[in-house]
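Show me a record, fold above all:
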Amino acid sequence: MHVVYPAVVSALLFSIGVYGVLARRNTILVLMSVELMLNAVNLNLVAFDVWLRDRLHSGQVLTLFVIVIAAAEVGLGLAIILALYRNRRTVDLDRLRDLAEPTAAGGGTAQDPAQDPAQDPVRGPLRGSAPAGSGGGLTDPGQAVSEPATRSGETS
């Protein structure tokens, strides 16, 4: 057997797999394309193992490891896809780009901090007001010392 034929078939399979990963938007098809790429690697490992006449059959042993890893990847990938489908009701990769949880009113993005008076865009969420007599109503520990006096209307 000449090694060129399996190498060419393997290169074609790997190229089809790369195209599938880059062009498809369905997560199931992307997983299938990754599996196609792994099978192309397996074909190369076995072909070169036979061509080199390795006594330990290293290529075939590595192929078994790749098959086991591919099976684990499929199981984990399908579990993640099912969890995403339960939460988002889609398996389209373009719609899964946001990390924010989908909201009932807002289309999947978080609220704008400028619209929420309790959210400070620089220091994070503001804390509740201080107890009476503990510093003039300081709401955020990161505020400057002179700021409470200007907020309450007093002068320094």
User: Anything to note?
Assistant: The chain has two domains: 4-96, 118-156. The chain has a mean pLDDT of 77. DSSP finds four helices and two strands in the chain.
